[in-house]
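Example with several molecule types.
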Amino acid sequence: MTAIATGARVFRLEDSPPHRCADASGGQREEALEGRAEHAAKTPVRPALGLAHISLTFGGVAALREVDLDVAEGEIRAVIGPNGAGKSSLLNIVSGLYRPDRGEVWFGERSFREVPTSKLAGLGVARTFQNLALFKGLSVFDNVLMGLAHRVRAGFLQQIVGSPLARRIEAENRAAAEEVIGFLHLTEVRDRLAGTLPYGVQKGVELARALVTRPKLLLLDEPFAGVTLAEKRELSQHVRNARDSFGTTIVLIEHDIGVVMGLSDRVAVLDYGRKIADGTPAQVRTDPAVIDAYLGVAHETDTEFEI
Ligand SMILES: Nc1ncnc2c1ncn2[C@@H]1O[C@H](COP(=O)(O)OP(=O)(O)OP(=O)(O)O)[C@@H](O)[C@H]1O
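Resulting C-alpha cells for the full complex:
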C-alpha cells in the first residue's frame, strides 16, 4: 500500500532545552560539570529513530495501534508482518506521508507529531518506494543525480547557473553520483536508460539514488519484491555494505522473511496493526506469536541464504 494521505498538515518541532550553567564559577562550575556528567551517564542515548505510541486509523480500520519502535544508530532493522499488518503505514508515517492519530516520531533528539516531508532530506533521511519511482526515460547516472536535486533550490540555481559556485556544486554532485554508482556496481549500466534495465537492476538504481545523499537513515520499502534470487543476494550485500561503509542506519519493511532474517540485526513483527514481537532474528523466529501470525504461513517468495 503506498497511497498518499492528503489534507492539511502541521508539525511540531521539539528540540531539547539547552543546558544552562552560564554564570557558574569555581566550585559551582565543577559541580555543574559533575552534575552534567552524572546526568549524561544516566541518560540513555536516544536511538537514531524512535516511534512512540503510534496509532493510525483509516475510517474504522486500525492500521497501527500503539506501536513503539527504536532503531539504534548503524543498525539494520526490519519490520515484517502479513499483508495489511501496517508495515507501509508505519514507513509512510516515518517519511511524513501519513500523519498518525496519536504518537510521536523521533529522529535523534528531535520529535515530531507529524514528520515534515520537505525537511526529510535535511534531517538526513532518504527512502525508496515499493513500486519503483525512477525516471525511466533518463539514464542511470541522471536518475542517481536526481537524488541530489534538493541540495539547491531551483530558483537559486537558476540565478547562479554559470557561476563558479554553480559549477562547483555540479562537480561535487556528479562526483558523488559516480562514486555511488561504482559502489553499487552499476558502472556498466551508467549510461543506459533506467526503464530498459532488468527490474532487479532498477531496484539497485533506486538504492543508489537514495544513497547518493549519504543519508543517516535509509528507509527501504520492500527492496526485494519482484527480484530474482541472484539479485536478492546482490542487493542484500549492497544494503549491508551501505551500513558498513557509510554507517547508514537502515529500516526495511519486507515480505521475504528469509532475506530479512539473514540481513537484519533486529526484527519487529506487526500483526493487525500491533507489534507482537521484537528482537533478534533468532528470538523472533521462535516466538510462538510470530509463528502463529506469520511464520506458520507458507510464503512462496521466502528465500533462505547466508549473506
Ligand atoms: N490510504 C489508505 N486508505 C485506507 N486504508 C488504508 C490506507 N493505507 C492502509 N490502509 C489500511 O490499513 C491497513 C494496513 O495497511 P498497510 O498497507 O500499512 O499494511 P502492509 O503491512 O504494508 O500490507 P502489505 O504487505 O499488503 O503492503 C490495511 O487494512 C489497509 O487496508
